[in-house]
Amino acid sequence: MTKDKKRNRIWYLIAFGVILLFLLILVSSVINVGERLRTISVYLEYGFYVLSVILVYFLIINPVRIILVSPAFSIETVMDKPSRRRYQTYKKVASNLMSRDDISQKEKEKLKNAMSEPEELQKTLNEIYNSTMKKLMNRVILKNAKTVLISTAISQNGRLDLFTVLVVNIKMIKELVVLCGFRPSYKNLAKLTINVFTTALIAEGLENVNINDLIPNSTANMLGEIPLIKPVMSSVAQGITNGLLTIRIGIVTRKFLFADSKELTRNDIRKGAFIESMKFLPILIKDSLVSLPQKFFDMFKKNKPEENVDL
């Protein structure tokens, strides 16, 4: 067995272990909630189990299935001469692009004219994916990062944050794969699996982070005098962190899809994803914080009658 095959096998084993761990956490959480519902009604418990199976299928299993059945492909440098096998894949991807409205009519015509020339088709695909498609993918990444930011900022439950981040990140990867018409290699999917689960665990752990540990005592004391500001700031900080990590996963996915076989190294991916995610961060915060004040207002408004009853 070659060194590359051994390395790939290690990635597969780690990814399998991560998936198994997630399934154990998921089953444990579902059973825990089901046992609580049993005290109300056995039928309610069974109904919850059925609902959980349906949600897991549509939110996790089906998106993963769509990713796995997509053809493996990467936008490679025009310096690499395409093989016959790659040429067939290029034509499938080009046909997929021309059948949708994601690119302009001019770009469709350019693809159509390049269909009979492997190198010209590869060059045209390279241009389209690194211009038009890259912009579309960035929009998908920002949209899902905004969902994660707002959801985890409002949520006050670490386990719920874990599942939210997992589901949204899987959905984002699925949308990027569907948009491109192909998926990364199995090795890179294994890496993405590990990244997604790690991000989800970070999201769960952030629930226990105290905002006082992140800011100076004088600032914390000043903020403590303002009603509700500290819990709101803590939740927003958690949301921003989760949103940033989601952006990073989206960028890594895009880089795997746009892989340059001569330049794609582990350090290049990490460095590039970090730099680019920091560029996206101001846009993410601006768009998300426009929606957050009303969300927080509604949340506390709903809780207000309950607080009066307790008093």
Automatic annotation (TrEMBL):
Top-level taxon: Bacteria
Organism annotation: Acholeplasma brassicae
UniProt xrefs under InterPro entries: DUF697 (IPR021147)
A single GO cellular-component term on record: membrane
Transmembrane segments: 12-34, 46-75
Sorted UniProt keywords: Membrane, Transmembrane, Transmembrane helix
Any one Pfam family match given in the protein's UniProt record, by short name: DUF697
Name of the protein in question: DUF697 domain-containing protein
rRNA-binding keyword on record: no
Keyword match NAD: no
Location in or out of the cell: Membrane
Entry membrane topology: Multi-pass membrane protein
